[in-house]
Amino acid sequence: MPLTYGAYTACLQDRSLPEALDVLKDAGLTGAEVNVGGFIPSPHCPVDALLASSTAREEYLGVFKDKAMTLSGLNTSGNPTSPLPNEGLKHAEDIRAAIRLAGLLGVKEIVTMSGTPGTDPSAKYPTWVVNPWNGIDMEILDYQWSVVVPFFKEIDALARDNDVQVCLELHPRNLVFNVPSFERLVEETGATHIKVNMDPSHLFWQQMDPIEATKRLGSLVGHVHAKDTRVFPGAAYRGVLDTDFGRVPAESEGKVPVAYGYWCNSWPQDPAWRFVALGLGHDTDYWARFLAAITEIDPEMNVNIEHEDAEYDNVEGAPDLRTQPPGGRRPALSRTWWTSHRSPSMARPPSVLAVDGHTLVWTKFRPHPDSSHR
Known about the structure:
- The protein is globular, with a radius of gyration of 20 Å.
- The chain contains ten helices and 15 strands.
- The two termini are about 30 Å apart.
- The longest helix is centred in the middle third of the chain and has 28 residues, at about 135-160.
- Helix 4 runs parallel beside helix 5 and helix 8 runs parallel beside helix 10.
- It is of the alpha/beta class.
- The strands form four sheets. Strands 1-2-3-4-5-6-7-12 form an eight-stranded parallel barrel, surrounded by five helices.
- The relative contact order is 0.14.
């Protein structure tokens, strides 16, 4: 079987699950990844009700069956090792619940993050050590690993009991954010059911090559998020480790929650980098090679689009790019999805990918205002 192309439904929170699946199906996708906890709400998955009732689970899976769609992942990205009780304790329990629910639903993959502990047992806030040139930082890292390793030993055992793979995003501001830190986690936990959610966007701005990372990790890649990143001229004077973000007022509409009482900040006007639609950061050939590398690991891998390009206006029903003339102007779109469409003679605009005889083309929908740069 070919790669399973789907999408993460977080930005369709303003629609019911059947309506969200219709959007994906109309785009030619066959899989859907739904949120079940962590930073953001889970309107497409009533976790507690599904854990409590086999009838509810049958009805829930029936929605996917009726739409001829696959439930291709549960997402609970958050900070499960945070010292903040309204973040760490909740997100840790969300992961446990996601694993148990995935086992009951027959879903083989959940997506989450390692999280970031504080500096020491008395710390109030999480601390991400970026470059431990100072010996003090090594003591912080020693403590953080002493928190993360036992937690993920527990999570690995729970995942093994439920026949589920826990796939970690290599996401900055987490203790596990690159290949060496993930390899250390596996080595120190002896994990058998912890893998990587390969999201190239977080690797790009760290100057990593997702293709080489994929090749090195091999079978440790268990899930894929398709998202691009573009580095801007601002990187010349900001660098990519930029802290020039702004607070979003509590009364602002559409703010994106990350924990009780906290939400995402606003980005600089002249950023060093940001997430963009596929093809706007890296070209067609790169994405084709990336997907080929994924196929070598698992030709049936779930590849789910996670769209976080906030530069497009909210436009619904804009012309599909397949109708655009060669070199034609790209329409203003709020978000982008892949859809599979055979058209070998079609001239390919920059946002079209061709893989294994299929052309993967953008289509559009209106996102919920809670869409985030995550």
